[in-house]
Amino acid sequence: MNRSGSEPVADVDWASAYAYLEEQQEAILRRLADRLGRLETEVEELTRARIRAVSLEVEEERTLHSVIEADGSDLSFAFYVYREDDLRWRQPYGRSNTLRLSPEEPGRYRVRGFVRRGTESSPADTRVSTTVTLATEGT
């Protein structure tokens, strides 16, 4: 008997037992790495900039009002405003998801909204755009 009061273990192949334990640890680590990779992909997908809607309305007779509704974190927004097919005005990327503009000329106006993550342009940024069309009053 040993000091713990139990019989000593005989005939144990400790090298094989240790090798088996290492194999099991490596399998667990591979599964954890795989799960972590999938979680990172899911987090990236959840935080990716994504436009849900771009609205365009006429307010107070001649003021165009546009709002970008988007999902994601740390977003910046930009707007391009067209009269007919001519680009008439650009609002560069900024934190505001709203545009108010009072064009001087009547006609059909279209707004194009853009969204990206962060304030700096980089290959990691996601750019999403959509287009809507609305006639201003008086046309």
What does this 3D model show about the protein?
With 139 residues, the protein is of the alpha+beta class. It has 2 domains: 12-47; 49-135, Immunoglobulins (Immunoglobulin-like, Sandwich). It has 1 helix and 7 strands. It has one helix at 14-47; strands at residues 50-59, 63-71, 75-83, 86-94, 98-101, 108-117, 128-135. It has a 4-stranded antiparallel beta sheet with strand order 4-3-6-7, with no helix packed on it. A 3-stranded antiparallel beta sheet has the order 1-2-5, with no helix packed on it. The radius of gyration is 30 Å and the shape is rod-shaped. The N and C termini lie far apart (102 Å). The relative contact order is 0.17. Residues 122-134 have low confidence and may be disordered. Residues 22-49 form a coiled coil. Residues 120-139 have a biased composition (Polar residues). Residues 118-139 are annotated as: Disordered. Keywords: Coiled coil.
Brief digest:
With 139 residues, this protein is α+β, with helices and mostly antiparallel strands. The protein is built from one helix and seven strands, in the order H-E-E-E-E-E-E-E.
SSE layout and pairing:
Elements: H1 14-47, E1 50-59, E2 63-71, E3 75-83, E4 86-94, E5 98-101, E6 108-117, E7 128-135
Per DSSP, what share of the residues sits in E-state strands of 2 or more residues?
A: 35-45%
CATH superfamily label of the largest domain: Immunoglobulins
Strand and helix order: HEEEEEEE
| Unreliable parts | 122-134
For the sheet with most strands, the description reads: 4 strands, antiparallel
Instruction: Tell me what the CATH architecture of the largest domain is.
Output: Sandwich
CATH topology of the largest domain: Immunoglobulin-like
| Number of helices, counting only DSSP H or I runs of 4 residues or more | 1
- Report strand order across the widest sheet: 4-3-6-7
Helix content: 10-25%
What distance lies between the first and last C-alpha atoms, to the nearest angstrom?
102 Å
Biased composition (Polar residues): 120-139
Keywords: Coiled coil
Region (Disordered): 118-139
Coiled coil: 22-49
